[in-house]
Amino acid sequence: MRHHFWIAALAVALGSSAIAEDAPATETVIELAGAPANERLSSREIRNWLRQIDVKPPKPGSGTTPASTRYTGNDTCQWANDGECDDPGIGTGACQVGTDYSDCWRLVEGVEDNTCRWANDGECDEPGFGTGACTQATDLADCGDIIHLRFRNDSCETAFDGVCNEPGIGDGACAERTDRADCFGRERPLTINDHYFGRDDRVFHDTTTFPWSVVGQVDFDSGGACTATLIGPDILITASHCIDDDGRPDSRGTFTTAYGRPGGTLSARVIDHMIDPEWDSRRFSSGDDLDGTDWALLRIDQPLGDTLGHVGVRALVETEGRRGAMQAELYQGGYSWDTGMHLSGNIGCHMVDIENDNTMAHDCDTTRGDSGSPFMVREGEEYFVVATDSNFRSNPNGPMIYIAARADRWIPYLDDFASGRNGTIAASRPTTGVKPPK
After folding, report:
1. Residue 376 and residue 332 in contact, taking contact as beta carbons nearer than 8 Å
2. Are strands 382-393 and 312-313 parallel, antiparallel or unpaired?
3. DSSP 3-state assignment of 308?
4. N or C: which end of the chain has fewer CB within 10 A?
5. Which of 4-18, 189-203, 208-222 bottoms out in mean pLDDT, i.e. has the lowest?
6. Number of CB atoms found within 10 A of residue 2's CB
7. Per-residue pLDDT at 69
8. Residue 237 CB coordination number (10 Å)
9. Could you write out the DSSP letters of every residue in 323-362?
10. pTM for the full model?
11. Furthest C-alpha separation in the chain
12. Is it the case that residue 151 has pLDDT exceeding 90?
């Protein structure tokens, strides 16, 4: 079983498959309302990644609610029976009160059980913090250690600062359920399907400063968004699955970066793209053999890099060898699903395995929304993209295995694409970045 860093949506397509191996490979684009970085989602993954909205969860009950006070309602909401409670005040708030009965009644009545067919398989399958294969409150055995995290995130401006700012349990500077790591701790069970390896070590990056000012988002015209990075005056690098539209590449969209910059953010339209000649979205979604082709070069219609600067690129394994590459400290940043409009990421994580298919496994804490985000190395004041975030694979005996596509494969195409040429592949050589003008 394998998963991609797609965020689920307010416009979820009903009747989609769970994550079973025999799920159909047809695709539907869905979008998460209010999320910082939505991404394209195939129908076989729709139940994997359901919405995360900041609403107050119900208090656990005894499971023996008197009949006179039991929750009543119907399933007339458009999003009923999608596995996630959408009633306001209980769940996401996407439905009217009492119109998502089947998904919500357990939460209201305090009934946590193991009625899901995937319960007791060692993997949390509830929506939001699990695979999404089960309805909420039906996988207690696997999700019991983290049910207190339902509907919670780290979207507060002061999240990750070590001080609890939620009302009631902290100083009240943040809204309820928006300062998760500071108020409830950073420890995470290995069964959680966010990439925390037992602990969430992410930080917020300052998007007014280089290099984080050149890490932005592409909002695609056909729906969804991904993280992308300026690697030239008008060239971006992201993940190929981000621009895949039902088996066809569609990169039309708007790139926005430098959030918080004095004078405002900068934006440009995506006007061209290049993907790996061997890329095949359906093979990528159903197996692991094409993970190394999950990259896409994008061209924008404004040279934002002339104003902001851009980072360089490097084929780290080729230039440093396997040992040198695995010893290098990595800098990663992306627009994660659970950190609001903030760029979150890692400083000092590492490659933990290097495969011959142009992929690498890493121990950086990444999650849904980070697709296409850069893994960089630093030399002095220069930064070089060495890989981009792609997907993760199940690991029954430990934490998920998190996969990135190494830059070694796409660097040979960069010169010709940047010059608007098609032709012989150039040598795999690093390019330097350009600091922003003083």
Report:
1. yes
2. parallel
3. helix
4. C
5. 4-18
6. 19
7. 59
8. 27
9. HHHHHS-EEEEE--TTSTT--EEEEEE-EEEE-TTSEEEE
10. 0.76
11. 75
12. no
User: Residue 51: how many CB atoms within 10 A of its CB?
Assistant: 28
pLDDT for the residue 191? 62
Which tokens is 335 given?
């627009």
Distance of CA 284 to the CA centre of its chain: 17
Taking the C-alpha atoms of residue 162 and residue 158, their distance in angstroms, rounded to an integer, is 9
Q: What is the DSSP string of 165-210?
A: -STTTS-S-S-TTS-HHHHH-SB--TTSSSS-TTB---EE--TTST
Q: Which CATH class is domain 193-438?
A: mainly beta
Q: Beta strand 248-249 with 235-238: parallel, antiparallel or unpaired? A: unpaired
Q: What is the mean pLDDT of residues 301-305?
A: 97
State the CB neighbour count (10 A cutoff) for residue 59. 7
E runs forming strands in 221-323 = 225-230, 235-238, 244-245, 248-249, 253-257, 266-275, 296-300, 312-313
What is the rounded CA–CA span in Å between residue 285 and residue 275? 16
- How confident is the model over 171-197, as pLDDT tens digits? 999 998 899 999 999 988 776 767 788
Rounded CA-CA distance 70/149 in Å is: 24
Q: Where are the domains of the chain?
A: 193-438
Locate tokens 């069964």: which residue?
A: 191
Q: Which two tokens stand for residue 27?
A: 């695709």
Fill in the amino acid letter for 1: M
Q: Smallest Cα–Cα separation from 92: which of 107, 113, 72?
A: 107
Would you give the DSSP letter of residue 280? Answer: -
Instruction: Report which DSSP code applies to 164.
Output: -
Pairwise CA distance, residues 209 & 433, whole Å: 15
Task: Of 435, 436, 373, give the one whose Cα is nearest residue 402.
Answer: 373
Residue 21 tokens read as 């191996």
Coil, helix or strand at residue 302: coil
Instruction: Give the separation between CA 214 and CA 210, rounded to whole angstroms.
Output: 7
Q: Residue 197 pairs with which residues in a beta bridge?
A: none
